[in-house]
Every structure is written in C-alpha cells, then in structure tokens.
Specification:
Elements: E1 2-7, E2 9-11, E3 32-34, H1 36-52, E4 55-61, H2 67-76, E5 80-84, H3 94-107, E6 115-119, H4 130-138, E7 142-152, E8 155-162, E9 165-172, E10 175-179, H5 191-196, E11 202-205, H6 207-210, H7 222-225, H8 249-262
Helix pairs in contact: 3-4
C-alpha cells in the first residue's frame, strides 16, 4: 500500500508579492514555504503509515530549488520523493498541472489499495481545483475537505467539513482525499529524520519522462498551452489597525454608536 501526497511550494504571501510582466508570480525573488494545507495532507499520510506501515511518496511540480522542500518532507518521515520539473511545465494552470501530476502519480506505481492525499487548496491560487482534477483524470472516487479520516479494512471513513456542518462518507481505496487544517497537527522534523533525509530516494521526472503518458495533452501544458491565464496578480491592501473600546459594556456601546453615526453608517 502507498500513500501518495501532492504538495506545492508556494510564495510566502505574508510579504510583498512580486509579479512578472506576463502576470505570473516572480517566484525566484520571493521567499517560499510549503503550502500549509499540504502539510496536513502529509501528516494524514504519515499517520496512515504509522497505522499500516505503508510507503509514503511525496510529489511536487516546480523548479529545481523545490528539492529543498521535498528533503524537509523526507525528514518528517516520508519515504520517497518525486520532483516534476521542466521548462515545458512552467506557467501551467490547474488544468495543465493536474494532468502532469496525474501522470506522475501513475508513474510512481499507484495501484489498488493506494490513497492520494492533497491539500484543500494552495494559498497562491485558492482555486481548490487541482486535487479534484487529479481524481477525475485518474478515474478515482474523491472526498474533499476532510476533517477526520479513519481506515477500516479496504475503506476509509471520512468526515468532511461543510459550510453549515459535517458529512460522513465511506469510500473504498484507491481514492483521493483533500485535507483541511482542522484534520490534524503536522509533525516537525527531528534530528534522526534530518540525518536520514539525504539517503532517501528522490526521482526527477522531466518532460521527456512524462510526455508519452496518454493523460498529458502536450498542447495544453505550460503557460502557452494552458486554457486559462492570470489576468492580474497583486498584494492585497493591508487592513487598518483596529480600535479598542474601553469602559463598561454600556459605555463601549455608546462610543461605538457614536463612531458609526459619525461615519454615517447608522
């Protein structure tokens, strides 16, 4: 059994967002982190490993420096890593990215009884599309927004979060699950993991490696082939500082009413 986790290295959006003239993010000039929701997906796979002894394979698509992120995930306990990297893949939208990652998942030996984990969404796009699109391309049942996962034989029982409550579903493996931050608390690296991470296998899949997979439509990958393009990227405006109202509840309410009246809100 394998647990395959798709992760993404994303810009640290707590700082200034740099944008290229073509509208894409200038990732080379920005600090990067592992996408937060993807860390919950990694932890879900590692917990499955703790329970069943399965192999955990982590996959990312990105430039060569993303190897550092993969090494950190190996240090957390993952067994094998795959870096999907090639100029032909650069600038891919979710449609293009999902077909490339789906081909990579197939190539690592995805089969019966295996589970693909993804984060709910990436903080640099917030589309939540790639995970479901991978499932669609691989013909897998999928459950999104997983807040709790329990393995029961060849099935998983998943509690998924909705806007107004929860839904509990049972799915047979193989399947794909997207994870939210409420699912778990990601573990940290330890000294033993750091010492071992450079001896664990890491493969690189380039365009030549994956181009013949029937899942990949070679004319719909990369920036030029992607059916959607970014119109504009920008740093959102900083929120103004809040105002603390002092005094009793009655005094604070009266002061708040005065502020709202002065702003012609009431």
């Amino acid at each position: 059994m394998k647990a395959i986790v798709c992760v993404k290295q994303v810009p640290d959006t707590s700082g200034k967002v740099a944008v290229k003239p073509d509208g894409t993010l200038d990732r080379a000039s920005m600090a990067t982190i592992t996408n937060p929701d993807d860390l919950n997906a990694v932890e879900a796979a590692l917990q499955l490993k703790d329970e069943t002894g399965c192999e955990v394979v982590v996959i990312t698509m990105g430039p060569a420096p993303a190897e550092g992120m993969l090494r950190e995930l190996l240090a957390r306990g993952c067994d094998r890593a795959v870096l999907v990297s090639g100029r032909e893949f650069g600038g891919s939208d979710t449609y293009a990215t999902s077909q490339i990652l789906a081909a990579a998942v197939k190539k690592v030996g995805f089969g019966e009884g295996d589970v693909v984990f993804c984060g709910r969404q990436a903080i640099d796009g917030d589309t939540a599309q790639v995970g479901p699109q991978i499932a669609e391309k691989l013909g897998l049942p999928q459950i999104t927004y997983a807040a709790e996962i329990k393995k029961e034989g060849e099935s998983l029982t998943v509690k998924r979060m909705l806007e107004d409550g929860y839904m509990t579903l049972k799915v047979k493996t193989p399947c794909l699950i997207t994870c939210i931050k409420e699912l778990n608390e990601p573990r940290y690296m330890n000294v033993a993991g750091v010492l071992e991470c450079y001896s664990k296998p890491m493969d690189v899949y380039d365009y030549e490696t994956l181009k013949d997979d029937p899942l990949i439509e070679t004319d719909t990958i990369g920036l030029q082939g992607s059916p959607t393009n970014i119109f504009k990227s920008f740093t959102p405006p900083q929120k103004g500082a809040g105002t603390m109202l002092q005094g009793s509840e009655k005094e604070a309410a009266a002061e708040l009413a005065g502020i709202l009246a002065a702003k012609h809100i009431i």
